[in-house]
Task: structure prediction
Amino acid sequence: MTALPTLTVKNAKKPARVTGHGKLAAVYLAPGMLGFLIFIVVPLVASLVISLFDWPLFGAAKFVGLDNYVRMLSGDPVFWTVLGNTLFFAVCYTVLNLVLALALSTWLHNLGSWGPFFRVLFFIPVVTPMVANALVWRLMLTDDGVVNSFLANFGIHGPSWLSNSQLAMGSLIAMSVWQGIGYNIIVLGAGLNGISPNLLEAARIDGAGAWQRFFRVVLPMLSPSLFFCTVMTIIGSFKVFTQPYLLTLGGPGESTNTIVLYLYRNGFSFDKLGYASALAWALFVIVMLITALQFSQQKRLVNYDN
Amino acid sequence: MTTETMAKGTLNTGVQKRQPLARRRKKRPGTYISRAAIILAGLIFFFPFLWMVATSLKPTSEVFSTGSNFLASRVEWSNYVTAWTAIPFAQVIFNSFLVSIAGAALTTVVSLLSAYAFARLQFKHRDKLFLVFLGTLVLPQEVLVIPLYIMMNKLDLVNSIPALIVPFAFGAFGAFLIRQFLLSLPVEFEEAARIDGAGSIRILWSVILPLVRAPLAVVAVFSFIDYWSSFLWPLIVINDVSRATIPLGLSMFSGERGTDWGPLMAAATTAVIPSLLVVILLQRQLVKGVSMGGFGGR
Result:
């Protein structure tokens, strides 16, 4: 059961009986907390401050108050496109990833000794550099790439996967699911391993069929792992950058442009660090709201009594 | 500790009881279909890597003309030579190893110290501080890149190796993982050492360190992989190819003179090999790390 990731903070037990830990703790915590302060807290606050300025990389920053936010919300149609694209990506990616990961991990779990091998196989794209993965997908999906050559064998004239605005986002989603699914397969696999076979045996004896056992026993028992996967997958999906940057450059048009890609462009191509920071805060607020919403529903959705 | 062993106990008896059932099931023809299907699924899933290697061995003229043929008319090893010389690839690989090893080492040491303090020492506001620290697990690091870039610019560290390493060594994942593990260990070991007169540094070094080797390895491996694969930050802070890491090097490759797919795939194959080795050698630790809550990633 210790293997189940629950995202709850287990409070430390009474520590070893020694008093006067303050100084010692300060020494041990100094590197971690200084780094946390300098490289996480300060940049987070700074990003909010910068978003109130017209801030070019070279030259003077000018205070503009909430102008960047006003422009983002009412004067920049690209923002809404980019937000819509990111939301569309997040929904499709998360649903596909979780449904497939649930199906695959259940299948692998019942596959006996072959399961662990294939679990690791599905994990490989997670740890190989995404840039390498994205580049080979671009090669495979070009108009005369291997996917279309394969389709041609069946007399199908393959479409332009990456330069057709209808298909480009779908291609990105497919590549991303391929890249990320192994992670959830392993987390859910660990969750499945934690379910006592006695429980399933008891359900079987009580006359529950395979589907009934899955929905009435496996799924509730798996809910802590599923909750963890959902939270992490949604957060990950909002950060999508490498795939559109390397496969489609955000195009055609703006059809695959995403928040982080747009943030990157504003900051480092258009020299608008202030506006980019406003975008960063939009991303931050959205992710925090969604995560908070999920945690507020945690008690209702997740079954923690084993 | 006790509940854990008990849970393990019941789990074991369960498995034993179930064994004959599992054996019986093996003989059903459905199992063979299932196995054939999983092999097919695995092959399809692994195909991009196979295609990466296959393309890396094709002459440029045959990258597209051979269609879905796996092999070209001849094996073109020279793509690897081209990849190696077109950009200072040896330097880029060296940078990647330097950044990933130094980054993993820094992350691991810092995480261990914090984890020990949060798990074993008592001080004011400890649990509150830890909760705030833990909150950064769900903070997208992409939010921080603009101020971090400005910071590096002010410090004159743009285009430097330290800029690739230092800003991302202070996430909460490592400390969280090691702390969880420490909490499951009895404090008696340390108590005994303390009674024997060992100082606190001594205890950390010769009592705690050997006990937490497993989670330390998990943290080290995951942060190595994170540094090895990281793309957005190097893209932002490095613009000189001689300071690039592999993902950045690969992306520069395709930009400069059209896309020369053979050499590019040779370079990509080279970039994937260390990760593959890590997976093959350390699969157990990786699986354990992920299932213990491996929410690293950036």
Q: What stands out?
A: Chain B touches chain A through 114 residues (CB under 8 Å). Chain B has a mean pLDDT of 83.
